[in-house]
Amino acid sequence: MYLNFSQKLNETLDGINNCAIIPHKNPDADALGSSMALYLFLIKLGKKAKVILPNSPPNYLKWMIEKYDVISHENNPEETKKHLLNSEIIFALDFNSLKRIGMLSKEIHNAKLPIIMIDHHETPENFSKLFLSKPEIGSTCEILFNIMKLINNEFIDKEIATYIYSGILTDTGSFRYPLTSGKTHNIISELFKKGVNHTDIHEKIYDNYSFSRTNLLGVALQKLRLISDLGVAYTILSKDNLEKYNYKKGDTEGFVNFGLRIKGVCVSVIFIENSEENIIKISFRSKDKIDVNKFAKKYFNGGGHKNASGGFSNDSMIETENKFVSSIKEFLGA
Ligand code: 5GP
Ligand code: MN
User: Fold this and answer.
1) Which residue's CA is the nearest one to ligand 1's atom 13?
2) Alpha-carbon span 57 to 68, nearest angstrom
3) Spatial CB neighbours of 148, under 8 Å, sequence gap ≥ 6
4) Residue 305 — pLDDT band, cuts 50, 70, 90?
5) Whether the Cβ atoms of residue 281 and residue 295 lie closer than 8 Å to each other
6) What is the pTM of this model?
7) Spatial separation of the C-alpha atoms in residues 295 and 290, rounded to whole Å
8) Best mutation site among 100, 105, 235 for ligand 1, i.e. most ligand atoms within 8 A of its Cβ?
9) Using a 6 Å cutoff on CB, does residue 304 contact ligand 1?
């Protein structure tokens, strides 16, 4: 599958000079890592490339783009248009539904360019000319590494390896989620040979809490509620909670995972009031066979992966909470 895709990609890139690379909105380390790795790889292939983000990354990932001229569509719509006009092809990385790139999807639609999608989410939409969709793989970075290796392993240097490591690290929950495989670890071994400094990457990504973010985590943990007979834990962060602790984008990343540390808990959920978009943003995490992707899709306009998904609600917080409590009971067959 990788071989076939790499050959087709090579053929598609033949004669093409200008590429645009787009990850999903609110990019995580897998989205940014795969985009930056592909960017550097395309440059090595002698192409021109531009990474266009639907919006800016959270502070803890700014190190991934600071050396490069990466565009945020939200901050710079005119420059985005200009670059799309110059581009001959678009890479869509770490998303498979145009909903996941917000307003940028309109620009892509207008640009009418061929799209190459590389992704690992379930149920891909049909918007690409060429795609590699592998929901059985833990990260887009792992998929991309395999593709780049087949095209030219020599071009994968320490910097590209660092981006790839970052995406694999975070999307596998530090190598613990079920989709982490022996093959994943083999890739990590190859990345070590390329010179990655894993300690430095872990520190950059995880040891970067501000004092107020640490306090906000305290609030989320204090407000944790348990439906013990269902093995469900959930917590809520209101607009007031966020404001009190000087919330910055990305601050709540990872909070939802703490519920799963409670013995017997198989589903953990966080509800976050997003006053900007006037929605309640929801993150779902689960263990084993419980499929929160299906749950998010069925009840909360969302999706993602079997054990990690997201969605949203347009109702009030209390209505959302009530809907969640009754729907999770129904879903788990209680
Ligand atoms: P998170 O909870 O970290 O925001 O997202 C977990 C996973 O669910 C990610 O892989 C993300 O792509 C997916 N996801 C998050 N929010 C949404 C959403 O509103 N719709 C869909 N389809 N997927 C989402
Ligand atoms: Mn991913």
Assistant:
1) 304
2) 13
3) 37, 38, 41, 155, 156, 160
4) confident
5) no
6) 0.91
7) 9
8) 100
9) yes
CA neighbor of 75 nearest in space, from 90, 57, 88: 57
In whole angstroms, give the CA distance from residue 110 to residue 186: 41
For the chain, the C-alpha Rg in angstroms (whole number) is 20
Joined together, the tokens standing for residue 321 give 């909470």
- Of 320, 308, 241, whose CA–CA distance to 279 is shortest? 320
Round to whole Å and give the CA distance between 39 and 160: 9
What is the predicted pLDDT for the residue at 37? Answer: 99
Give yes or no for a contact between 148 and 37, defined as CB atoms under 8 angstroms apart: yes
Contact of 292 with 310, CB cutoff 8 Å = no
Strands of 232-237's sheet in order across: 225-227, 232-237, 267-274, 279-286, 308-313, 303-304
> Based on the number of CB atoms within 10 Å of its own CB, is 149 exposed (0-12), middle (13-18) or buried (19 or more)?
middle
Residue 334 has pLDDT above 80, yes or no: no
Ligand 1 atom with the shortest distance to the CA of 26:
4
- Pairing mode, strands 225-227 and 279-286: unpaired
Say whether 288 sits in a helix, a strand or coil.
Answer: coil
Pairing of strands 232-237, 267-274: parallel
Our answer on whether the CB atom of 184 is closer than 6 Å to any ligand 1 atom is no
Atom number of ligand 1 nearest to Cα 95: 12
- Over the stretch 22-38, which tens digit does the pLDDT of each residue have? 999 999 999 999 999 99
Which residues does residue 237 pair with via DSSP β-bridges, in sequence order?
272
Cβ burial 77-92 (10 Å sphere, 16+ → b, else e): eeebeebbeebebbbb
Q: Are 174 and 146 in contact (CB under 8 A)?
A: no
Across the range 128-136, mean pLDDT stands at: 96
Is residue 100 within 8 Å of residue 22, measured between CB atoms?
no
